[in-house]
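Researcher: Go.
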Amino acid sequence: MSLKSIHNILGILEIQERWQEPPLQRVLKCWHEVVGKTLAKHTKPVWIQRDVLQVATSSAAMSQNLTFERQRLLEKLNQRLAIPLTDIHFSTANWYKSSLPKENITIALPSEHPSYVGEKLKRSRSQIFVAKDINEAYDKWAEIVKARSHDLSLCPQCQCPTPPGELQRWGVCSFCAAKQMR
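Model: Structure:
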């Protein structure tokens, strides 16, 4: 059994196009085309868990009717998705939960997170490292972590390298902030 370092696995995933857009976002973009305008007014895709799409409906009768149509809908959706869905569940349970209008929903970018440290260490396909053994993989990982944290300020409490966003937000690293909140 060969062991691949986390660095290698993340590099491969980063390259793969299908990981760029979350599956639910893709479903939301094509939902109106798949079900039609009339049904789209009475349904809302809510989440995907274990390749099963959960859809909120405006009534129990609508849920039951769509359950009979789910194979047809699955075929249409899977033609548009990189990772195919295995099933669709319809329910009225989450129909009234969304209080925000769709125009006000925003998606946060990774660069907006306080723990974001930047993209200065982006890897190309030619830079993917394949370790010969676990020790070499660990050494490479330690080298990458050290390089990432080289320019970071230290947490005033634990003296660990800390992203600037965490220091601005909490004054300490996220681990120390979590300890303080207990």
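Model: The chain has a mean pLDDT of 81.
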